[in-house]
Specification:
- The protein is an alpha+beta fold.
- It contains 25 helices and 34 strands.
- It binds one RNA strand through helix 8, strand 11, strand 15, helix 11 and strand 30.
Length: 814
RNA sequence: GCCGGGGUGGCGGAAUUGGUAGACGCAAGGGACUUAAAAUCCCUUGGAGCUAUGCUCCGUGCGGGUUCGAUUCCCGCCCCCGGCACCA
C-alpha cells in the first residue's frame, strides 16, 4: 500500500496550483468579492509559529470562502522598514536592504511551503521606493492641509535604540522593543494630528462593533480616553490675568483649597513671586532631571501666588506639584483634597486645609478624621445655593452658572496625543521635506518623489541619524526658490507604512497614484482581518485613522478599513510565549520537514479556538499526523469506489446519509463562526464512523464514495495538500481546490429515531428511543415501564410532567 | 485602583435560544496482531461508594437565588490572565 508522503505531495500540489494561477484575485469579477487579510510580517529572517498560526487561520478562511463561490483577494507582503535591519547592519556589516531582501526571499519560500493561498502577484514590500513614495505624497498633502505640524516637544527617547518613541511604544517606562529605560528629551518632531480624529475614531466604532472583539474596542476607547468636564478660569491675584484649569469634577469647586501647576508649565517661572523664585527653580530643575517618577511621593513648592476661586471669591495658594502633567488638560489643576486622593495626600503633607463638599450617609463631617479622600457620589454640602443637589446634577448646574459670568465652559479632554512620526533612523521612509534658509519648511515637489533613501550609508549606530552624515542626501535645492537647502534627515515611524498597505494590495503595481481608485473601491473594505492582539491599539488605531485621512483627501470612500477583526491568541510552550530568550521555540521548518505543512496546519487549528492562546504539544502534533494517516488509509482503501445517485431506502443507507449531511451541516456552521477546532472534531467523528461502516452493497459503495468526496472537501481548507492528492487518487480529474463547498439537505440531518431523556425531578434516569415526533403520552407510558425510572417514582405522587418534543420528559414527583 | 476576558476530567478543549456535562484529541491502562518492537486495530478511562457485570451519591472556582430542570440566567464573594495607570 502506498504510504502518505507529505514531503512529496505538498510540493507537487503547490507547484500545480501556482502553474494554474488558482490564487489570482480577479479585479472586477462578477462573483461577490471577499477580501481576506492577515497582518503582514516584519522580515526578521524566519517565519515563527505565531505567523504560522495567523496565516493558517487566514488561509482556512480564504480557501473556505473561495469554495463558497467568492472572488477572494488574499494577499501577502512585508513590513520591511525597521530597526532590526539596522542592528543587523551594525553587527554583521551587511546593508539593511540586502539583509531585508534576503530575509524576504527566505520567508516567501517558507510561506509557500506552508501552502498558503496567496496571490503572489500582489506582493507588497514597504521599503520599495515605489511603495513609500505614496506615503510621502500623502504626507505632503496632509502638510498642505494643516493635518501635520512640526513642533519642539519633550519626547520619549530610547538611548539604546537612539530614537524617539511614540507613547504607544513606551511600555512601563521602557522601550517596547529593547526594554531600555526611556528618557525625556526635547527635539523637533513631525506630528500627525490624529487628535483631530479622536471623536470620529470613537464614534465610528459603532460601524464595526459587530465584527470586532469587544476588548479591542475597549482598549482603543480607553486609549483615546475622552472625558467630559469643564474649563474653569481662576483669576490670578494682583494681575489682570487668569489661569484655566480642566476638571471633570466641577461639582467640587467649593472644595478647592489650593491649585497645582505642572513644574514644566511655560508660565510658571514668569508667575512666581521673587521671594520663592530660588526654591521653585531648584524644584523645577530636580523635576526635569528625574523625569516623571510615578512611584515617587507627591511633592510641591508654594509659588507665592494666589488665585481667586470663581465660585466663592476665596484666595487659594498656587503650588508647583510634581504629579501634575503638562501634556493633559491645561497643566493646571484645581485641588480638592476632600474628594481627590492625590490632592488629599498633597494637602496632608503640606498641611493644607481639607474641606468636605460632598456628603453621603455615614461620612463624618470632621475631615481631620478622614484617612483618605471621599471620591464616591453624594449630595453637595458647603456649596452655597447648590447644597442638597446630587453631585452629578450639580456638576453641570455649577458650570452653567459660571458660564453666564464668562468663567467656565463645558469641554472635553482626550488622553490620545498627536502621533509623532519622526524617527532618527536610516532604515525608514524619508520625510519629504526641505529646510530652506529663505522659504523655511518646504515640502518636496510631488513630481520629485520619491525622496529615495541613499544607498551609500555607513551605519554605525552612533550619534544620531545616519542620513545626516550623507552629504549628497542632505544638500539639496529649495523646491521653491532653488537656493541651497537641507533635507529633513528623519524617517517615518514604520507604523506609517502599515497604515495603508491593505489599500496598496488592491492595485499593487499602479504607478500613477497611491492606488487605483476603482480597484480599491471594488475590493475595500477588508472583509476579514486576522492578526495578533498586540496590535489592538497602535497599528489598528493608526490604520483606522489613515483610512479616514485618505477619505478626506479624496482618495477613497472607505471610512473603516476592517469590517471584521479576528485577534488570534499567542502560541505558548511550557506555559510561556515562545521566544528565543526562553528557549522554548519550535521552528516551523522542522515541523514541516518532519510531518508536512498539513499536519502543522491541522494541529494549529485543532488545538484551540483561534482567539485563545494555544499550548504547543508535540504529542498533539503526533495526533494530528496520525489523523491524516488515518484519513489517507481510509480513502486509499476505497479509492476505486465511484459515487453515484442512490435511493436511500434502508436503515444502513439512511444512517450513512444522515452522517454525511449532518457532518456537512456541522462543519459548515463551524466554518462560518471560525470554530475550526470543532469542525475538525466533526470530521474526525465522521472518519471514525466511516472506518466502522464497511460498504457492502453497490448502493452502499456509491454512497460511501460520496461520503469520502464530501469529507475531502470539508477538510480541504485545513489540509489542502493531502485532500487534493486523495481527490486525484480517487480518480478525479479536476482540482479539489476548484470544487465548491458541499451542500446539505436539512431533511437528512435529522434521524427518524430520536433518543429521549427521561428525568425525574430533573435527574437523568433513563434514555429511551422513539420515532421522531412521538407524543408525550406514549413516552410517559414507556417511561413508567422502565425499571430505572420506576424505582424513583414508586410510592410518590406525580405532580407534573414537562415534555420537550423529541428531547426530554421530566417527571416531577413529591 | 480602573476597564476587559476567563475559571469545566491528568491535559488541550466540547456542550443551539436553560433540557442526557465531559464531543474530539492527547496522555494513561488493558487486549489483538508480531519471534520482538514500531505502526495499526479493539476496549476502559470525572470522583466516591456499595449488598459490583449494575445501581446510588457527588461533580462545571465558592456561597446563595430563580426554575420542573442551571456549565448556561440573577445576586454576593474568591482566584487567574490581559490592558491602562498621578489623565485632574
Amino acid at each position: 500500500m502506498e504510504k502518505y508522503n507529505p514531503a512529496e505531495i505538498e510540493v507537487k500540489w503547490q507547484k500545480r496550483w501556482e502553474e494554474k494561477g488558482l490564487f489570482k484575485a480577479l479585479d472586477f469579477d462578477k462573483k461577490p468579492k471577499f477580501y481576506q487579510l492577515e497582518m503582514f510580517p516584519y522580515p526578521s529572517g524566519r517565519i515563527h509559529m505565531g505567523h504560522v498560526r495567523n496565516y493558517t487561520i487566514g488561509d482556512a478562511i480564504a480557501r473556505y470562502k473561495k469554495a463558497k463561490g467568492y472572488n477572494v483577494l488574499h494577499p501577502m507582503g512585508f513590513d520591511a522598514f525597521g530597526l532590526p535591519a539596522e542592528n543587523a547592519a551594525i553587527n554583521n556589516n551587511t546593508h539593511p536592504a540586502k539583509w531585508t531582501y534576503s530575509n524576504i526571499e527566505y520567508m516567501i519560500k517558507e510561506l509557500k511551503r506552508l501552502g498558503f493561498s496567496y496571490d503572489w502577484d500582489r506582493l507588497v514590500i514597504t521599503c520599495d521606493p515605489d511603495y513609500y513614495k505614496w506615503e510621502q505624497k500623502v504626507f505632503i498633502e496632509m502638510l498642505e492641509r494643516g493635518m501635520v505640524y512640526r513642533a519642539k516637544s519633550t519626547v520619549n527617547y530610547c538611548p539604546s535604540c537612539k530614537t524617539v518613541l511614540a507613547n504607544e511604544q513606551v511600555e512601563d517606562g521602557k522601550c517596547w522593543r529593547c526594554g531600555s529605560e526611556v528618557i525625556q528629551k526635547e527635539m523637533d518632531e513631525w506630528f500627525l494630528k490624529i487628535t483631530d480624529y479622536a471623536d470620529q475614531l470613537l464614534d465610528d466604532m459603532k460601524l464595526i462593533e459587530e465584527g470586532w472583539p469587544e476588548r479591542v474596542l475597549v482598549q482603543q476607547r480607553n486609549w483615546i480616553g475622552k472625558s467630559k468636564g469643564a474649563f474653569v478660569k481662576f483669576k490670578i491675584k494682583g494681575r489682570d490675568e487668569c489661569l484655566e484649569v480642566f476638571t471633570t469634577r466641577p461639582d467640587t469647586l467649593f472644595g478647592v483649597t489650593f491649585v497645582s501647576i505642572a513644574p514644566d508649565h511655560p508660565k510658571l517661572l514668569e508667575l512666581v513671586d521673587d521671594k520663592y523664585k530660588d526654591e521653585i527653580e531648584k524644584f523645577v530643575k530636580e523635576f526635569k532631571k528625574g523625569g516623571r517618577d510615578f512611584s515617587k511621593e507627591k511633592e510641591g513648592v508654594f509659588t507665592g501666588v494666589y488665585l481667586i476661586n470663581p465660585v466663592n471669591g476665596e484666595e487659594v495658594p498656587l503650588y508647583a506639584a510634581n504629579f501634575v502633567l503638562m501634556e493633559y488638560g491645561t497643566g493646571v489643576v484645581m485641588a480638592v483634597p476632600g474628594h481627590d486622593q492625590r490632592d488629599f495626600e498633597f494637602a496632608k503633607k503640606y498641611n493644607l486645609p481639607i474641606r468636605k463638599v460632598i456628603h453621603t450617609d455615614g461620612l463624618s463631617d470632621d475631615v481631620g478624621k478622614w484617612s483618605e479622600a471621599y471620591t464616591e457620589p453624594g449630595v453637595l454640602v458647603n456649596s452655597a445655593q447648590f447644597d442638597g443637589l446630587d453631585n452629578e446634577t450639580a456638576k453641570w448646574e455649577i458650570v452653567k452658572w459660571l458660564e453666564k459670568k464668562g468663567l467656565a465652559r463645558i469641554g472635553y479632554q482626550y488622553r490620545l496625543r498627536d502621533w509623532n512620526v519622526s524617527r532618527q533612523r536610516y532604515w525608514g521612509a524619508p520625510i519629504p521635506v526641505v529646510y530652506c534658509p529663505h522659504c523655511g519648511i518646504v515640502p518636496e515637489k510631488i513630481e520629485n518623489l520619491p525622496v529615495r533613501l541613499p544607498e551609500n550609508v555607513e551605519i554605525t549606530g552612533e550619534g544620531g541619524s545616519p542620513l545626516s552624515k550623507v552629504d549628497e542626501f542632505v544638500n539639496t535645492k529649495c523646491p521653491i526658490c532653488g537656493a541651497d537647502a537641507k533635507r529633513e534627515t528623519d524617517t517615518f515611524d514604520t507604523f506609517v507604512e502599515s497604515s495603508w498597505y491593505f489599500l496598496r494590495y488592491c492595485s499593487p503595481k499602479y504607478d500613477k497614484d497611491i492606488f487605483e481608485r476603482k480597484r480599491a473601491e471594488y475590493w475595500m473594505d477588508v472583509d476579514q482581518y486576522v492578526g495578533g492582539i498586540e496590535h489592538a491599539v497602535m497599528h489598528l488605531l493608526y490604520a483606522r485613522y489613515f483610512t479616514k485621512v485618505l477619505r478626506d483627501l479624496g482618495y477613497i470612500n472607505s471610512t473603516e478599513p476592517f469590517k471584521r477583526l479576528l485577534t488570534q491568541g499567542m502560541v505558548i510552550k511550557d506555559g510561556a510565549k515562545m521566544s528565543k530568550s526562553k528557549g522554548n521555540v519550535v521552528d516551523p521548518d522542522d515541523i514541516i520537514e518532519q510531518y508536512g505543512a498539513d499536519t502543522a496546519r491541522l494541529f494549529i487549528l485543532f488545538a484551540a479556538p483561534p482567539e485563545k492562546d494555544l499550548e504547543w504539544s508535540d504529542e498533539g502534533v503526533e495526533g494530528a499526523f496520525r489523523f491524516l494517516n488515518r484519513l489517507w488509509r481510509l480513502v486509499y482503501k476505497y479509492r476505486d469506489l465511484k459515487s453515484g445517485s442512490v435511493e436511500v431506502k434502508n436503515e444502513r443507507l439512511k444512517d450513512l446519509n444522515y452522517q454525511i449531511h449532518s457532518t456537512i451541516k456541522k462543519v459548515s456552521n463551524d466554518f462560518e463562526a471560525y470554530h475550526f477546532n470543532t469542525a475538525i472534531a466533526a470530521c474526525m467523528e465522521f472518519v471514525n464512523y466511516l472506518y466502522d461502516f464497511e460498504p457492502k452493497t453497490e448502493d452502499e459503495k456509491k454512497l460511501y464514495a460520496k461520503a469520502l468526496e464530501e469529507l475531502l472537501k470539508l477538510l480541504s481548507p485545513i489540509a489542502p495538500h493531502i485532500t487534493e492528492e486523495l481527490w486525484s487518487l480517487t480518480g478525479h480529474e479536476s482540482f479539489l481546490l476548484e470544487e465548491s463547498w458541499p451542500e446539505y439537505d436539512e431533511a437528512f440531518t435529522v434521524k427518524d429515531i430520536t433518543t429521549i431523556a427521561i428525568t425525574v425531578n430533573g435527574k437523568l434516569r433513563d434514555t429511551l428511543e422513539f420515532p421522531r415526533g412521538v407524543q408525550e403520552g406514549e413516552v410517559f407510558e414507556k417511561a413508567l415501564e422502565s425499571p430505572k425510572v420506576k424505582r424513583h417514582i414508586e410510592g410518590k405522587e406525580i405532580v407534573k410532567k414537562i415534555f420537550v418534543k423529541d428531547k426530554l420528559l421530566n417527571i416531577v414527583v413529591k
